[in-house]
Amino acid sequence: MPKTEVLIVGGGVTGAGIARDLALRGTSVMLLEKEDFSTGATGRSHGMLHSGGRYAVKDPESAMDCAREGVILKRIASYCIEDTGGLFIGIEDDDPTYVDRFLRGCAETGVQAKEITTKEALSLEPRLSSRVSSSVEVLDASIDPFALTLGNVEDARDCGAEILNYRVVQRFLVQEGRIQEVIFENLRNGSRESVRPEVVVNASGAWVDNVASLAGLRIPMSIDKGTLVVFNGRLVNRLINRLRMPSDGDIIVPSHSASIVGTTSDRVDSVEDFVVDRSDVDLLISEGQSMVPDLRHARAIRAYAGVRPLLGGRKEGRDISRTYRVIDHEEEGIDNLVSIVGGKLTTYRLMAEKTSDLIMCKLGSAGHCITASEPISNPMAAKTVRDLLAFPLIRMNRKYGDEQTDIIAGCTSSLRGKEILCTCEEVLRGEAEYFCSREDVMRLSDVMRRTRIGMGYCQAGLCIFDMASVMMEHSNQEPLDLIGHYLRERWKGVEPVLFGSQLRQEVFKRYLYDGVYHLESLLGGEAR
Amino acid sequence: MKDHLIETSGCIKCGACINECPVIATEGVQRFSGPRNLGVDAPRFLPDIGATVDNIMMCTTCWRCEEVCPANLPVPEAILHVRRQIFSAPNMLHGHRRIAENIDKYRRSVEPRNTHDQVSPRGKGEVMYFPGCIGKERIPSIYESSVGVLGKVGTDLWIPEGWVCCGAPLEKIGDWDRLRMLREENMTRFEGRGEIVTSCPGCTSHLIAHYNLEPLHTLEFLYEDIGMSRLRFKPNERTIRVALHHPCHLVRTIGPHVIDYAYSILNEIPGVKLVEMEDPGACCGGGGGVVAGYPDIALNLATEKMRKAREVGAELLLAPCPFCVLNLGRLDSLEIMEFISFVNERLE
Prior knowledge:
The structure holds 2 protein chains of 2 kinds.
Chain A: E1 3-9, H1 13-24, E2 29-32, E3 48-49, H2 60-76, E4 81-82, E5 86-91, H3 98-109, E6 113-116, H4 118-124, E7 132-138, E8 141-143, H5 145-158, E9 162-164, E10 167-175, E11 178-186, E12 191-202, H6 208-213, E13 221-232, E14 239-242, E15 251-255, E16 258-262, E17 266-267, H7 278-291, E18 300-311, E19 324-328, E20 337-342, H8 348-363, H9 390-400, H10 406-413, E21 420-422, E22 427-428, H11 429-436, H12 444-451, H13 463-472, H14 479-494, H15 500-516, H16 519-523
Parallel strand pairs in A: 1-2, 1-12, 2-9, 5-14, 12-20
Antiparallel strand pairs in A: 3-8, 4-8, 5-7, 6-7, 10-11, 11-12, 13-16, 13-17, 13-18, 14-15, 15-16, 19-20, 21-22
Chain B: H1 4-7, H2 16-20, H3 22-27, H4 35-41, H5 64-68, H6 75-86, H7 94-106, E1 127-130, H8 133-138, H9 140-152, E2 157-158, H10 168-173, H11 176-189, E3 195-198, H12 201-211, E4 216-217, H13 218-226, E5 240-244, H14 248-254, H15 257-268, E6 272-274, H16 290-293, H17 295-311, E7 316-319, H18 322-328, E8 335-338, H19 339-346
Helix pairs in contact in B: 4-6, 9-19, 12-14
């Protein structure tokens, strides 16, 4: 039976970060993820690298962590960060005393913040409301959570770690107060496999309680749902935060071709509750409009919801600290299980470091954390560029790093690699070919997370068939299953924003899918 | 100013603009990424739009994409807006730099020829005639014929002294500093303008959109203000087979009515046998700064146009636009003439 020093359960950014951290320290690591990487809270986050300002007043510990980690991540993961900077803006009618408390909080927590005039704010961001009454500049940035996670995954692999997705942990074999064996299912072929770890790390985010229960333990969690709405185009070029006590619809993040407005905060019972309520969408649009009035005319592309894995307790939603906790389950009778709970995307590296420190302790090994200084390498290595239009090329540089990559080389050498497959997001067929041929890509949404195919305003309206045809060159799955699975996921996000242009888009797609391709009857009504 | 991001956000990816784009048809999407990419999709990635520089100047601004768009999105204007946003003097295409240099030196988009104005600039005319750079300096017969025709029908003209290029070519290459300068210079010279008549659809649409004036293209002036009854044509025994090109900016930015006026006039000219070529509204390649920026693309489109005219047996191709005449005239496979010049030749 295979052995590993550390088995990590969960392939979000925290699990991937721990895998990289430990692998860089020379530890043998295996990671199991039940779906694709970053499909939980990571991929459903706002894609925001916090300056710390948001927590400066209410949650100073998180603010300090964010301020420090923000600087580190800009240094080690620049390939997936757009250093846009951010603004906190107060609107007339907002509490006028908050700005002073905010600036004091920032000063006390080491969050860099500089008050600027309304005129300066409007010249930086012309779409801001004319009702802006106070503005503070901070160091927020836009970060791609998918690329960040994949960078950690690939780096860990380069150091010998075994990082596997589509592996569902089913059972812990516990004997003598230790997890002796972990049994998991391989979703690719349905086989059952097992591994003997020395230490198990539960980094399963919102699912930590479920995983802990496999060892007979409980971790009280507060499952908090946050909803976000994606708008077409970059309405702002910095992150815009509302200068008030954290509330709903406070933040607009420019990301690639879109502006993402979020979030809400609602306690929910199930970690699988990703359903978006139309009332949340309305709330976000109306709150967003008070900062950027043009949102009224902008095109809402889709909405999505994620669950924040917050530490449980008596407090609710926004009152719960965004800090994290590393739990050693030794006291509860399982010697070799460690759980990491809570935290934020911005602090994932710190969480990974603290978790890894404890694990090293448990393993009795030496080895220091170097992730604060060691840059994450671009997920791919360098090759040459030829014959490509500059625009897809710059998009690839944004997505995969400044260096010219294997992917680009694939685009120029493959027969049809230079064709634009997804026009919204400017993704070339060669990019899809590259990722479809990789071991850890099984579904169309896996290709999407790696390339942004299908994330644009038509929501894969046209590229879905090309995507499936590229996938079929490397897969023996039923193409209609691939398409149906993907379209169902897209539909969940589009349904809550079916008005204006997005409604016309869906009506057009329906004619196309049903009238031209007869997809509806083929999929049994699932394509809507 | 229009909010281009919001205005173009209604795209549903039907592909009509791409299927109808004349530059994609001749050059392919590997070379020219097309109206949807440049006007709708790329601007969403605002910090990256500079990367469109390698093909955005290939658009002839023929306005066909907007015409066929089921959502009626202002795609050409959005493309022009991107050109404005990414304009950088050091990176201008060679041909575009020459336009800018000509503006700086001569206040014309092309090098001037020393032809004399036939009309006294200080005349007390009621109608102001704006000659335009191409008609005045490159194909002077257009200027002479326009003044001739307007004189024959009894119009009292004046030409503003020291008029400068209207700025339309600068809008096409994204150079708004020079554009504003020219507009200010012209506006002081247009004092006491009265009605304005121009020979060039480019000038006409530019004066409408950027000067907030209401100029008439010569065809509009002849048909609407003078009237068909006052046009007396020479009798002519020899019959000539004539095809009419529909210039993009004439029919799609001024209005489709103008080409109907051209047909009405042609129908009255003795000896003219109209032959209708396939897709007479297809772009000739003359617009959008493409002749200066990418002469090979302009020539490819012109070749197509001439082929279609010859196919229906035309002996003469008429175009009511100096730019089209300039571009099509680079080929000598068929006689090409500016519309008003032909009218002048046939008018009593």
